[in-house]
Amino acid sequence: MVQKKSLDNRSPGFRVPVIPRAPRSARKRSLHKNTADGRNICAIELLACLAGKLLQETESSASNIASEGNDQLSLPKNALQDQFQGEDKSLKSEGQGSCEDGLFILEQASEDNQHKDFLKRSPEVESGALWDRSSVNTNSSCLEKENSDDKSVIISKSGFAVSGDLNSDKLVAVKEQVPDETFLKDSMADCAETPCFPNAFSSRQNIGMVLDRKDDDENFPRFYKSSSTKLKPYKPSSHIDNGRIRKLSTSKNTKVAPLRKDTEPSKSGTGRKVSNQKRRPFYSRERYQQHGFLQKRRKVFDGSCIVTSDGVLSSESDSTSHQIGVNGETMVSSLGLGDRASFEAKNPQVKISIKSFKIPELLIDVPETATVGSLKRTIMEAVTTILGGGLHVGVLLRGKKIHDDNRTLLQTGISSKENLDTLGFILESSLTQSHPSSITPQDSTCTLPCHIPEQLKGSLDKSVSDSGACDSASNPANLTGMCNDIVDSTHELTVSSNTDNATDKPLSDSRALVPVPEINPEPLAIVPTNQKGKHPELSHRRIRRPFSVSEVEALVQAVEQLGTGRWRDVKLRAFENADHRTYVDLKDKWKTLVHTASIAPQQRRGEPVPQDLLDRVLSAHSYWSQHQSKQNGKASGRMAQTPPKMIKANAVPENVITDIGG
DNA sequence: TTTAGGG
DNA sequence: CCCTAAA
């Protein structure tokens, strides 16, 4: 996108990068929502768990569909209804709500076989199509109402959105009514050989990504409280009109994006406001959240098949080992009830089943005119970037992080049943400078292991606070609803270069990503469904968006030519279309660039900036320091006389320090 | 609004 | 990135 401005032909221009959200900048804002949320999560997961069991039960009795790796668990309508009754009801009704409630309905008229087949070996697996499908399937299995010819699946964007009435306790109770483990075990045995899911889902950690929109604080509460309505992904017109949106969006840079494609570039403005008025790339926020999306799937584990709802529940068939279900950020485990004796006798093994990992929050910025296809790719890029950017796993036991990597599981207590229940894993971004803040044990707001790591909280908070920024973009429907065929050729959203570095390795893992929910092929008008403006004061800090190398390049070039002190011009010149970059940002960036260039490479952080660029930074910096850019610029109107780069390069020998990096 | 700097 | 004093 962006980069319309020709940078003198010399600059390759830059593209607005898709930057994975760096947890590092997690701002701890109010945590008010967290507590409640955390509870709900548990409730949700519990319910999901229940559903899983029920499902299992139903399934087994109804003959095994396991014939060929069908990952789609179908759950007879009745079963669900009966079991959930009230909850179900509320759920459904909620599901019918507008997208604001985070629920979508998926009309899916396909046969299991198709899906199975698809999942098994679809060439699209790599393209992201899998995401769509898997999402569908995954979700389908959660709450699926099966009809003779078509199914309606209620999907929760942000997890199992059961009614707000449910609380942990209640759920716990419910859970206990579920068929015993043995039963489950048996029923699951049938599908033991079934490749429950594509490779990605079985042997390696599953990564679930929840694309969700958190428009504003209201969302959380609303999400649970729900009330009414019919289902539809979104209503293009039922909400605020564009004008309204725009108005609302102007307050802060990171607000809602206008739908319209608009108009011509505003001639003068460059500041945030102006930017907003101009075409503003819709600001999307995909965040994974701890709501724990309802993803139930089967897993084959040494002949046993575990059905879990995000790790809430897992059963083991192998008495000599433990199986631990991992769930997203936090994972829950349950130790089989098998006899311990034989277990200890042998060389005990701790089996850990990671149901899914949620990837850190993603922030994607794409133009309104971007196609769904490109959006998909963008997301994929972002995801791979995150994965490749250096993720490491953190192990939590009883809410505490285990730092000693050399200790054995036995030593750390991970092998003991009691502890397994409190075992958790968390993905942490290496990009995050933040020291893995140890999770506070007190976090366990709920009875069950539903620890919410600080980081998570942070991001949650952030999302909440950033609320305004999100919007439609995250509307799942927009993300995956469309088919890939539309693979467009518009490169508007080419992902930034900074993804390059990391794309390699993770690529292969991309399959493991389990995006989530979504769907509903509908026009993707990006409709900011929420009207914010609620708590302006909560207004947020803009999300951190590291400059990509190309951006830096563009900046450097512009400064070389314009000099420092003319940020507005720089902005206009090189970042006119980068609405999220204000001249202040550019100025700040330059500031940091200068600093970066002055320090040893080892001290630098973040995506490394090519040394040559840094050299240019120093050159330009020193040059303009002596040449009062302002004066020159104004006076000559053109700085031809004071050619930046080249001249400096030669004139300023200091630059030669290049390799040293300062 | 834009700069310039400190936070 | 944010916040602001100044210009």
Automatic annotation (TrEMBL):
Q: Which domain of life is it from?
A: Eukaryota
Where does it localize? Nucleus
Locate the compositionally biased regions of type Polar residues.
624-634
Matching SMART domains, A to Z?
A: SANT (SM00717)
Task: List each coiled-coil range.
Answer: none
Domain Myb-like, by residue range, is: 539-594
> Where does the record place the HTH myb-type domain?
539-598
Keywords assigned by UniProt? DNA-binding, Nucleus, Transcription, Transcription regulation
The keyword DNA-binding belongs to this UniProt entry's keyword annotation:
yes
A single GO molecular function term of this UniProt record: telomeric DNA binding
PANTHER family for this protein:
TELOMERE-BINDING PROTEIN, PUTATIVE-RELATED (PTHR21717:SF73), TELOMERIC REPEAT BINDING PROTEIN (PTHR21717)
Q: What is this protein called?
A: Uncharacterized protein
> Which organism does this record belong to?
Trapa natans
